[in-house]
Amino acid sequence: MHADIVVLPGDGIGPEIVSATLPVLETIARRHGHAFAFREHDIGGIAIDRHGEPLPATTLEAAKQADAVLLGAVGGPKWSDPNAKVRPEQGLLAIRKGLGLFANLRPVRPHPAALGASPIKPELLEGVDIVVVRELTGGIYFGDKTRSDTDATDLCRYTVAEIERVVRSAATLARSRRGHLTSVDKANVLETSRLWRDVTTRVMREEFADVTVEHQLVDSMAMHLLSKPRAYDVVVTENMFGDILTDEASMLAGSLGLLASASLGAGKVGIYEPIHGSAPDIAGKGIANPYATILSAALLLRHSLGLEEEAQAVEHAVDRALDDRVFTADLAAPGQAVSTADAAQAVIDRLGA
Ligand code: NAD
Ligand code: IPM
Ligand code: MN
């Protein structure tokens, strides 16, 4: 097949992990007889520097026309003044919203060889296989904001339709897995959470009677996620809770550098990006873990291009690199780390003939 893939390297380690990932996709294309055209555009801090805005219209337009978007990360100290007029992160929020990508899938499946990198006891991690479905275009991220000399506000708003569609996505996914959905909210305090719980309960009763649903308050969920991670199959939650819980969940896998994501909407185009950020503390050193981005490319093959066999080939190759303890510095024992480029090459070497 032919596919147009918009590539948005962004800032910090973004360009390093994206340029490590493109050869993986090129190898897949060559081996499986596909033609992928990569079109690079600016987003985030680099777009502010070059165009004066974090999401130039040309970038959004290209993404709308593409089959899929592969993104590195945005942001960094250069653009982080709390009084700055524009921030790189606004570009990321705007492209998610502009493409209507309301469901952000974040799989968490600790690899046996990396269990030692997790601060959690290995016996709690065996068999853990969770997908967090984070609502991505609503809630406090997108409500009206105000700021004066004496106060500031962020409005958190959800509509019934916004909750219904993400719950349907999560429940459909749960149905294809172990048939269990955990909905996370703060219904003991927040009105948006009480609406979330009501709508979730109704949608599950009316449309997903075959999927079991449990409701969990976000504060105790943050604890249960570490104390009994095997109890979870699909977890659905609102935008900010999902952001926080998935960085926490990355510690089950051993590193933020292992968690991939797919941002999906009603159309075919999706954004595929690691859940981590631009890692300014290690940027430019060639030591970032590229696996989260490579695994995001696997999700791209699966969800936007419908290439399941190719997606699995990439996932198996990453698994085999981890089996062989090809670890970047975030996972490796002292003195054992490989570079970003070497880790990506190890995946390519394991893609099979
Ligand atoms: P971060 O995720 O960038 O980094 C947190 C820690 O994890 C750092 O110590 C970093 O070195 C490490 N880390 C992250 N990715 C890694 C990788 N692939 N390999 C090895 N180590 C890795 O979070 P932060 O420091 O809080 O944020 C830095 C900037 O990134 C901020 O401007 C933030 O807004 C932005 N950010 C962007 C995205 C995105 O573009 N999707 C996501 C999160 C944060
Ligand atoms: C993420 C990031 C973003 C978010 C920021 C950079 C806007 O933390 O993708 O998890 O909060 O959604
Ligand atoms: Mn985040």
Automatic annotation (TrEMBL):
Entry binding sites for Mg(2+): 219, 243, 247
Pathway(s) per entry: Amino-acid biosynthesis; L-leucine biosynthesis; L-leucine from 3-methyl-2-oxobutanoate: step 3/4
Residues reported in the UniProt entry to bind NAD(+): 76-89, 277-289
Organism: Luteimonas marina
Annotated Gene Ontology cellular component terms: cytosol
The protein, known as: 3-isopropylmalate dehydrogenase
Cofactor annotation remark: Binds 1 Mg(2+) or Mn(2+) ion per subunit.
Keyword Coiled coil found: no
